[in-house]
Amino acid sequence: MAVFESGRFWNNHLVSPGKVMNLKEQLDCLFNPRSVAVIGASNDMMKWGFNILNILLAKGGREIYAVNKNGTEIQGLQAYRDITDVPGPVDVVVITVPFKDIPAAMKECVGKGVRAAVIISGGLSETGGEGAVIEREVLGIARRGGIRIVGPNCMGHFNAFSNVFTVPYLPPVRKGPLSLISQSGNTSQSIVHLAYDMGLGFSKYVSSGNEADLHFEDYLEYMAHDDKTEIILGYVEGLREGRRFFELAKETTKKKPVVIMKAGRTEAGARAARSHTASLAGSDTVSEAVFKQCGVIRVEEVSELVDVSLALLGQPLPRGRRVGVLSTGGGGAVMAADALMRQGLELPELSSVTMEKLNSIFSRRWSHGNPVDNGGDPFDYASLWAMMEDENTDAVLISGAAGVARNMSGWVNVPDSIGEAVDQWIEATEADELVDVTRLMELMKAYQKPAIFCNLAIPSKKIGALYKRLEQSYDIPFLTPERAARALARLVEYSEYLGIAGGRG
Amino acid sequence: MAVFESGRFWNNHLVSPGKVMNLKEQLDCLFNPRSVAVIGASNDMMKWGFNILNILLAKGGREIYAVNKNGTEIQGLQAYRDITDVPGPVDVVVITVPFKDIPAAMKECVGKGVRAAVIISGGLSETGGEGAVIEREVLGIARRGGIRIVGPNCMGHFNAFSNVFTVPYLPPVRKGPLSLISQSGNTSQSIVHLAYDMGLGFSKYVSSGNEADLHFEDYLEYMAHDDKTEIILGYVEGLREGRRFFELAKETTKKKPVVIMKAGRTEAGARAARSHTASLAGSDTVSEAVFKQCGVIRVEEVSELVDVSLALLGQPLPRGRRVGVLSTGGGGAVMAADALMRQGLELPELSSVTMEKLNSIFSRRWSHGNPVDNGGDPFDYASLWAMMEDENTDAVLISGAAGVARNMSGWVNVPDSIGEAVDQWIEATEADELVDVTRLMELMKAYQKPAIFCNLAIPSKKIGALYKRLEQSYDIPFLTPERAARALARLVEYSEYLGIAGGRG
To answer: Over pLDDT 70: what percentage of chain A?
Structure first.
């Protein structure tokens, strides 16, 4: 893909007296540093300088240095007064000192040969005036000295695989295929939290802050090439390089999905965005058109970032808008039908072959049409095979396929004979599991159809096994049919953009 | 309230040779039975007759009987061949036998003087034909014998306070102020699950099934009078007594909120609803108008049932649409502003008094307007007092007010001196907590303003304490600003309906 190979977007920096590094090498260093120093390291537990040093020490795996102008011992480490006092080489610094002290610190970093600086401190361009002047000064020092800057006014970064975390205020993070670029640290906390709750894991994360130096577009370019990143998530308030974003996104979405929550859609939101990251949110109509033309999956609610990820991972994109619904109860069928229709998706009639198959699988109570309600019987995989094989469906949404595991654990006074029967049943279920999951994966591939599980009440062991088998780190299906339908609609649109699905109508 | 006192809606039944019971007495008996018998009790763990008997035994607290035509021992109990063989009186029976066997069982129940029958079995009117004929026959027997029927084709019922559960397939249930009437057992599983995840608890629950005898309206009337029910939740596909519903809801919503998810909105959904509960979904435009005129809070997504409950509980209704947003980060402010605007709510300018207060509380980084972004500093309750006291706000939404508790638990290598400081800080925080929460409650009451917490990343101990203090059983704030904004908008509409808030515009 020419846009990546041409070098057109590489921001080369002359590292004096070192060598020229391109963007990939610079960000490789940021995400895989041999050593990290915290400038502003602290023993005060309420300070960033305490918490960042602490998480770096907790994660381990590299040289960690504490820098503090008072030079006392910090968290058991010798504290250096100045980065230049640090004995070994320093790849990355994290700066938490007050904004007026940053220019001096940056000059010392240049002297030390630091590669990248994560500036946590706020009070710079986002406040205008003196802060903006200092931000420009810091940027000049860094540019001349070959240091790339993350932030300022940001929350740090991580690489879950190399175990480097300069962000202390996050919920637990699993390793996984998502990478997140966020123009809000605050919001990235939410996204990581939501992902954790859905069982999803991350590769890389960056809170881009004011983007004085490194822009959203730089991280996007890097993630596009990163083998460990399968889906790029973004929280955006304003893009600084619209044209570059467009060309980059257009190439990237051909090979991996880019899912973006663009905030500042309303007048009040746009005003807030201006104040937050000194960014112009721009006309939302323009943003919408741009995202559409370059295949970006735009979402409207922050939770959709993880919902779409869950639907995308390990599954084929649908070839069209026709969804077969399979439910173990009427309510799940009705709500799924409503939710899909509201998203502009279609509920086709089932083929006569499928109708025959379902008649032979279900009791006479079943709904005899799409959405399929089996009448409240336990979930039967044979009915899922029938729905997957139906020539009229492009995707299958399974609503309310409840397992019994949770219920069983609450049983009381169970006689030995029943206990034995339960053990046998669990054994048989586990043996079936692999067979069923393998079969479903074959059908997904053969028919290019995703199967979206939306099991509200009781997570089924089989569904968990399916997701594990798909080699994703998650095992939790969607909580509501509405969220599942929204995510599926975004998949269909992306598929239409890529030409895999035919266009609407 | 005349509609309740007139007796107009009581369905009196002559219990021969016993006394006349009104609807309240009948449902009191259903929800507080002295004894329950399972007709169709089983040792087969895959059967309802196993699981219902098992949960009844697990919960204990009353006489439980097993009835099975083969009369063997079941789960350690003597099994009776016939309900008339049971030695003691039986208030409630749960029937799980095949539909053709129900008429005979019901006749025996009449002989035994049973008060209410929960018929789990399906295959009746929802399938038409023979099933519908049998349902009418069963209804006739029950009516003549003075037995009220829940279902058929339902999932059971519970009263969390009297600890009677005839529904085995639910996530854990907390005691609490919600009661749920659901025309889908399947969907009620989801609702109970979502409520559990949000920390909400229930008083009473009923899966109304085909509503052969007891209708949604009967349960609604009962819950309206139930002191333990503060909010009535409903999942509805079709109402059988539209006029009665309207009058009942109109009176009920004056004293407690009625929140309804009405499914079958779309053509495909309505078709599915017909097949599911043999109910006519009717025109959605008509439903919408009816709900609006009787003050029912209608929600569009199943998760909103619990979101609206969370926002309603223990808080005053807002006096208008003007929302002050208070955020500890820019992203939370921008997303909240977008979400509120999209819901038709307003973000007013703050009063000059509030601006002065916030200038003195925050560092110069703050956003200097509504939405208020404090610039990333820790949450300060003084800023919340200022927002609550502002004459321009009708409600306050707090977005991203992160605590540090989770982070602290991950600390490593903390020297003793810091450990002591942490202990002191936690002690001080806990002492402050009660003061802050008491103050917030005073302000809520004084200004008739709800304060909605939407703290995505890290649940704060203070927020938990607030909710506990409000004597609700929950301690979890909203996960996303979009969900919080949607719930708040429903509160505003309800408040406008009640005349507490002025109308729109």
So the answer is: 82
**CB neighbour class for A263 (10 Å; exposed up to 12, middle 13-18, buried from 19):** buried
Q: Do the domains B323-498 and B2-150 match in fold?
A: yes
Q: Which residue has the tokens 């009781």?
A: A458
pLDDT of residue B124: 79
What are the pLDDT digits (tens) for B421-459? 666 766 666 666 667 777 888 899 999 999 888 864 444
3-state secondary structure of B278: coil
Cβ contact B330–A412 (<8 Å) = no
pLDDT computed for residue A73 by the predictor: 92
Beta carbons of B334 and B398 less than 8 angstroms apart: no
Domain ranges of chain B: 2-150, 170-312, 323-498
| B238 CB within 8 Å of a chain A CB | no
Which element (helix H / strand E) includes A87? none
**CATH architecture observed for domain B2-150:** 3-Layer(aba) Sandwich (3.40)
Question: Residue written as tokens 């028919």?
Answer: A447
Other beta carbons less than 10 A from residue B432's beta carbon: 13
* CA–CA dist A275, A126 (Å, integer): 7
- CB-based contacts of A148: which residues, under 8 Å, 6+ apart? A13, A26, A27, A30, A115, A116, A117, A142, A213, A214
Q: What is the pLDDT of residue A272?
A: 82
- B345-385 pLDDT tens trace: 999 999 999 999 999 999 888 899 999 998 877 778 899 99
Chain A residues close to B369, C-beta within 8 Å: 271, 275
pLDDT, tens only, A426-440:
666 666 666 777 788
C-alpha–C-alpha distance, residues A434 and A422, integer Å: 19
**How far apart are alpha carbons A194 and A184 in whole angstroms?**
15
CATH number of the B170-312 domain:
3.40.50.261
Residues contacting A100, CB < 8 A, separation 6+: A134
Min Cα distance B42 → chain A (Å) is 11
Map tokens 């809170």 to a residue. Answer: A207
User: Is the pLDDT score of A457 beyond 60?
Assistant: no
Please state, as a whole number, how many other Cβ atoms lie within 10 Å of the Cβ of residue B210: 24
Q: How far is CA B503 from CA A448, B387, B485, in A?
A: 51, 23, 18
Question: Residue A14 above 70 pLDDT?
Answer: no
Q: Give yes or no for residue B198 having a pLDDT over 50.
A: yes
- Are B209 and B182 in contact by the 8 Å Cβ rule? The answer is no
Average pLDDT, rounded, for chain B = 85
3-state DSSP assignment of residue B409: helix
ipTM: 0.86
- CATH architecture for residues A163-312: 3-Layer(aba) Sandwich (3.40)
Quick check: bond before A89 cis, omega within 30?
no
Contact between chains at B51 and A184 (C-beta distance less than 8 A): no
Mean pLDDT of B47-51: 91
Least confident of A485-499, B44-58, B332-346: B44-58
User: What are the chain A neighbours of B238 within 8 Å (beta carbons)?
Assistant: none
Q: For residue A408, which residues of chain B lie inside 8 Å, CB to CB?
A: 45
B4: confidence class by pLDDT, cuts 50, 70, 90: very low
Assign domain A323-498 to a CATH class: alpha beta
pLDDT at B16: 41
Kindly state the tokens that stand for B10.
Answer: 């009581």
Cβ of B481 under 8 Å from any chain A Cβ? yes
CA angle B85, B91, B97 (to 5 degrees): 60
Which of A126, A335, A365 to mutate: most B Cβ within 10 Å? A335
Distance CA B182, CA B164 (A): 18
| Segment A371-392 mean pLDDT | 90
